[in-house]
Design goal:
The protein has 250 residues and is an alpha+beta fold. The protein has seven helices and six strands; from the N terminus they run αβαββαβααββαα. The longest helix is centred in the first third of the chain and has 67 residues.
Length: 250
């Protein structure tokens, strides 16, 4: 009897352990399901917030870029002015003498020196000049290499300047390979080899002439081949008339 009770007790114990395990798994599954049901809206909301933040960051970056679009930074101009009007006059003289570009006062939106003035006076502060229209800035940037004593650059943010600086090594490597490489805002643009571009330009420049010559040959040769000599026609006609039979009169 004791052995049977012990066997029955062991079976009951195993069954209880099995039921306890199933109960734990069921409770765990229910808890996880409820947690997932509650987390799904939170995850979706978090995803939407990230997209919204990314969109706002792009808008802010666009606004910053638009704000600087018509700006230039001038380095190396002596700090001798006593007012903004003096500074404008100095810029007008320099731009006229160096690159022959006229600057009007009403064409400047804002102008000032960047940073605090150095007490010792041995360091010249750069100048930020903002134009009303973008075409005046483009005219200056296209001729900036002709400046004698000053240097003009775009007005980039600190983040963009850091990216451009980091790309300088890669830019130099691409140019060493003979490729056409340059920086556009904060991106590196790499095109084909210079030799291939020059060859392509030569082919493009020479192809219209060759096409015209070939077309002329195609149009003139058949015409020459089909032309007949008027003298030959009249001679053939005269020969045919002489060969006609002559009827003698009876």
């Amino acid at each position: 009897m004791d052995a049977q009770f012990q066997l029955l007790f062991d079976k009951m114990k195993i069954e209880m352990q099995h039921q306890s395990k199933e109960l734990k798994e069921s409770i765990t599954d229910n808890i996880m399901t409820r947690m997932e049901e509650k987390l799904i809206p939170l995850v979706e909301e978090n995803k939407n917030l990230k997209l919204k933040i990314e969109s706002q960051e792009k808008e802010i970056e666009y606004l910053k870029r638009e704000k600087r679009r018509n700006n230039i930074i001038i380095f190396g101009m002596a700090e001798t002015e006593n007012s903004s009007l003096d500074l404008i006059n100095n810029i007008k003289k320099t731009f006229k003498s160096d690159i022959n570009v006229d600057i009007e006062e009403n064409g400047i939106n804002n102008i000032y020196r960047i940073g605090k003035k150095n007490r010792e006076g041995n360091k010249t502060r750069p100048i930020l000049c903002s134009f009303v229209n973008g075409w005046k800035k483009r005219e200056i940037m296209e001729n900036k290499k002709s400046f004698r004593d000053i240097y003009v650059t775009e007005d980039y943010s600190k983040e963009v300047l850091a990216k451009r600086k980091a790309l300088q090594t890669e830019l130099a490597d691409e140019r060493k390979k003979g490729k056409v490489a340059f920086l556009r805002y904060d991106k590196l643009v790499v095109k084909g080899n210079k030799t291939n571009n020059d060859k392509r330009k030569r082919e493009i420049s020479s192809s219209p002439h060759s096409d015209i010559q070939s077309k002329k040959q195609q149009t003139t040769l058949p015409f020459k081949a089909s032309r007949t000599n008027a003298f030959d026609v009249t001679r053939n006609r005269s020969n045919s008339l002489t060969n006609l039979p002559i009827n003698k009169q009876q």
